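Please fill in the sequence for the structure shown.

STRUCTURE ENCODING:
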């Protein structure tokens, strides 16, 4: 059973490009996470809290003409729409003394499966995904000179077009976003409650040595070696006055979904507070949507830090 689990884990790692190193949890290494007693009254923490405790709302403005021009240009650079094809693979499972392995017997691709398909309502499909008007979508597609590719592979064309339009739309929305604080709506300090917080210790967990520089007394649960090193650097740096990992309930609303920044930092001799948006490691490159959320959230940071 253990061998089968290891083989499955290895297969997932190879196919998906992820690693389980440091992510396997040992139930015997579960510990209670403690916040440092009295951190709520620490001037360094309050300096941050008084800025970030406010909820925010945003308004977005952009010109439809700009969207049509930029989206049509982006569509011209879309990958070529290819005919639908059918891929058939045949594998054999081999069981031996060394365990279970796979053997590829055949792998064929039929370039044209010859089935007829009806042309769907392209405008309705894209409208349902983007919430743009049909006239705007039609203007974009016509200006792109790509409409003929709809006949080659309708689904691929509609999906690529939708993705392209949404990407341009999000960029325009981010450029035209305006945030403001909601004075009557704030996060409660009681959200920092460690009565029932338990974490699994793993290779990424940072053990706090100097709790006076953060809100934690013993551990900071983290997701990567890079985050672990970042925490160590903050703790040992003479230039960092105070730092802490922002909790999951602290969210910044953006036009493309909520975003959670990673860290809040105060440097010595500075009144500014800095958000560290992402601390990703090698092999953890941000998806484009997350980069866009991060860019949108920067506007919020400027409002909160005023």
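FILLED IN BY: designer on duty
SEQUENCE:
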């Amino acid at each position: 059973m253990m061998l089968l689990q290891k083989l499955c884990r290895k297969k997932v790692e190879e196919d998906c490009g992820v690693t389980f190193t440091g992510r396997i949890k040992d139930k015997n290494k579960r510990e209670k996470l403690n916040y440092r007693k009295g951190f709520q009254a620490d001037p360094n923490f309050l300096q941050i809290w008084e800025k970030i405790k406010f909820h925010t709302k945003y308004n977005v403005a952009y010109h439809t003409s700009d969207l049509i021009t930029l989206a049509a240009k982006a569509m011209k650079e879309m990958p070529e729409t290819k005919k639908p094809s059918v891929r058939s693979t045949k594998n054999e499972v081999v069981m031996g003394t060394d365990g279970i392995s796979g053997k590829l017997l055949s792998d064929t691709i039929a370039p044209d499966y010859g089935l007829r398909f009806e042309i769907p309502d392209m405008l309705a499909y894209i409208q349902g995904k983007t919430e743009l008007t049909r006239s705007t979508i039609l203007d974009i597609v016509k200006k792109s000179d790509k409409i003929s590719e709809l006949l080659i592979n309708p689904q691929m064309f509609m999906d690529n077009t939708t993705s392209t339009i949404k990407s341009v739309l999000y960029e325009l929305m981010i450029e035209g976003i305006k945030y403001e604080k909601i004075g009557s709506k704030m996060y409660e300090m009681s959200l920092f409650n460690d009565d029932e917080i338990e974490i699994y210790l793993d290779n990424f967990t940072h053990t706090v040595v100097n709790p006076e520089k953060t809100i934690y007394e013993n551990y900071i649960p983290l997701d990567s070696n890079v985050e672990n090193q970042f925490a160590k650097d903050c703790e040992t740096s003479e230039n960092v006055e105070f730092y802490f990992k922002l909790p999951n309930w602290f969210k910044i609303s953006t036009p493309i979904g909520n975003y959670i920044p990673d860290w809040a930092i105060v440097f010595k001799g500075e009144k500014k507070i800095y958000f560290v948006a992402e601390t990703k490691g090698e092999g953890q490159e941000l998806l484009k949507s997350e980069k866009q959320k991060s860019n949108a959230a920067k506007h919020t940071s400027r409002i909160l830090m005023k």
